[in-house]
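Re: the pair you flagged

First of the two:
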Amino acid sequence: MSVSTFKSVHLAKRPTDRIIPGETFTLKTGEAPKESDLKDGEVLFQSLYLSLDPAMRGWLNDTRSYLPPVQIGDVMRGAAVGVVKASKSDAFPIGSYATGTVGWTELAVMASKQLEKVDIPRNGKITDALGVFGITGLTAYFGLLEVGKVKAGDFVVVSGAAGATGSVVGQIAKIKGATVLGIAGSDDKVRWLRDELGFDDALNYKDQHFPKRFREATKSFIDVFFDNVGGEVLDLALSRAKPHARFVICGGTSLIIDPANLSPTAELSTSPAISQYNSSQPQGPKNYLNVITMRIR
């Protein structure tokens, strides 16, 4: 490689609320690794695309979780898809595409066991390795099939339905013979879910009449709720669950809806759900006892 330097993004200070540009992260420039720096089984990986996922906000908190927090000074954790520029691994020849948890960096020396090969299917594109063929697609697949136990005839409601995970959830549910209602954050997304992805119906949670329309759309009650947003949408879904409904708690990216005016508030809440990472005011669901009365699992 002829590149002499590379850039990487490092955690500089843990946020207590929202991410602060120029304070939370710092951009560093380093000397580019050379092929001579590689050990047997290692490759020089050049990132082409980085994944930016809501869960990353939680990795900045110095709390116990399924992954240890990113340490101050470390490269920000994250998945990437890229190309091998130099190699001492038979598994990854120069020019091959790969993906892995490389971090927010232009270049990285990686052990071959830390990467996965990327085979792009016909009509596919390299970024699919971070989407439908990546962690978001796998989350949708196993979350709906293994946890949600979706089956033909189910009524499935998906929040965050226009996102990377939710959009795949809805399509899998349709393949399995379910009726699908999607919840999204704009009229354009609602049309996309209905017209292009084949959802049976979709609602805009920013509509001032959303709670009423949600109740009307769930008159037969919910068999499977795949939750990507938390907040008031989760609360509404809990109130509309069938006995023995299956709730898949995947994330919590939405704004909380202010019951006083039925419009999104400017502040997010802070529970284990992703929507609650950016505030010091934790708020849990009000209808959680429906988990008991409706025997939700």
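Second of the two:
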Amino acid sequence: METSNCPLSDVGNFKFHRKSHKPFRFFDLPAELRNKVLGYILRFKGVIDIDFDNFRRISVFLVSKRFHGEAAAVLYGSNTFRLFPTAGRADSKRTKPLISRFPPHYRANLTSLELRLGPFWTKPPGCWKVNDALGLKDATAVRVLKVFVEIDPTHPIFHGFRNGKNFYTNFSGALLRQVISSLPTLEEVRFDKYPSVSYEGQLMTRLMEEAAMGKKRITTAQDEKLTALGHDETVSNECLRIMDSLN
């Protein structure tokens, strides 16, 4: 075992030098890398609704004005936001849709919205309506509208509980039509559902009719390549007939 030749009396005279590192300047990175770093912080799994509470992450907005601007573009442009609330006290008279609370310049960064249908199928909340306060006209970057259907109340299992057989179908169809007509740059309506909901059911058929009449591309989340719905074997003949008539 090697020993030091240094006398013990000199040990106290040694100076340990730690290599100093200058602070790294975030904005020296290219924009693509800055967005990638911000994405690790500000991209969230699932759809953002009024119950969002991860404010610790978005505290990065407070770093500086420039950081705020770039972080906002990533947060609002990389996540899907729910159009009408389904979480928490969504049925409260005081509840407002999340995107209606955003300033117009934040809504301009939105790229993906979700319309979730099924909750409150007997009595939709009063805030589930398209109006100027919702601010869809400001969402000029939204190209895809996701429509997720939880249940179809026209199914016989709901007999005796529903508010008329066609009530929720008519409500949902009218709501989707208004949303489609209010989004200025919308190109695609992407449908998804629970396994218990059929594409050939009355509700899904009505929704796809509205998307077809709005002349939007219809796709399904189950199709990984997002092929046009007319090439999907699960599509009803009625939906194909409607799309053919529009073409």
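Confidence is low (pLDDT under 50) at residues 224-229, 231-236.

-B.
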